[in-house]
Each structure stands twice: as structure tokens, then as C-alpha cells.
Amino acid sequence: MTQLTKNFSREELACKHCGKMEIPPVDIERLQRLRDRVGHLLTVSSGYRCPEHNNAVSKTGRSGPHTRSAVDIAIHGVNAFHLLVAALAEGYTGIGVNQTGPLEKRFIHLDALEDVENIPRPNIWTY
After folding, report:
1. Which of 36, 38, 53, 110 is 20 to 30 A from residue 87's alpha carbon, by CA?
2. Residue 37 lies inside a defined structural domain of this protein
3. What is the phi/psi pair of residue 49, to 5°?
């Protein structure tokens, strides 16, 4: 396993389709600061996605946020609330919240992109 920070490995952030991992170091460092701020495990359910994989699994097609630097964190309940507060403090500008359905399917999407595809930032949305 290749550690990128004290809590995140290359493998957990890599594309589940092809194994590439092209999240910029600055965004990986921000993710580690977020982890330090919340003080508990953050499980990445989806990290970098190659354009082909993103096109297959997301409405954002071949150029969505996950093809640059987004992560989805599997989380729910009070921990999700604390993650939201910490993410805002760390400067995340794209926050997608899915907190319905089975607990194991709940997550929060995080990215720190500038305006994307005519979507002004900061922006918070639900799934």
C-alpha cells in the first residue's frame, strides 16, 4: 500500500475501473486536514475516476468533479454533520449530501473546484 498522507493511501483514492489516481497533492493534503479536524476515520467510497468510469457511473459524464479531485465519504448521522462543518472550514466549495436510504449507502461528496460546467461555487446540493 502506498501512503500519500498519514491516513490516506493511493489505493483508496484510485479509480476503481483502471487504478489511476490523479487527485492533485494539494487536494489530498486538504483531505488529510479534514480528517485531522474531524478526528475520526473517513472512509472514501469513491475517489478519483478516470473519464471512462465517471461517464459510466455519473450524470457528469467524462469531465465531472471526480475526474479532477472529488471524493465521496461514506458517513451518516452526527458524524455527517461534523464532516459538513469541517468541510466548510477547510474550504470545500462543492458539497453533495446523500443522507437517505440504507446507512451503508449514505455519503457526502466533497470537492474544492472553481466554477464547474457553469455551476457557480460554492454550491451545496442533495441527491
Report:
1. 53
2. yes
3. -130, 130
Cβ-proximal residues to 1 (8 Å cutoff; 6+ apart), any chain? 9, 10, 11
Distance in angstroms (rounded) separating the CA atoms of residues 73 and 47: 9
CA-to-CA distance for 111 and 62, rounded, in angstroms? 16
List pLDDT tens digits, range 110-119. Answer: 999 987 667 7
Residue-level length of the chain: 127
Residue 65 carries which DSSP code? Answer: G
Comparing CA positions, the residue from 114, 68, 112 lying closest to residue 92 is 112
Helix or strand run (H / E) with residue 52? helix 51-57
CATH code: domain of residue 35: 3.30.1380.10
pLDDT, tens digit, 9 for 90 and up, residues 74-111? 999 999 999 999 999 999 999 999 999 999 999 999 99
Domain count, the chain: 1
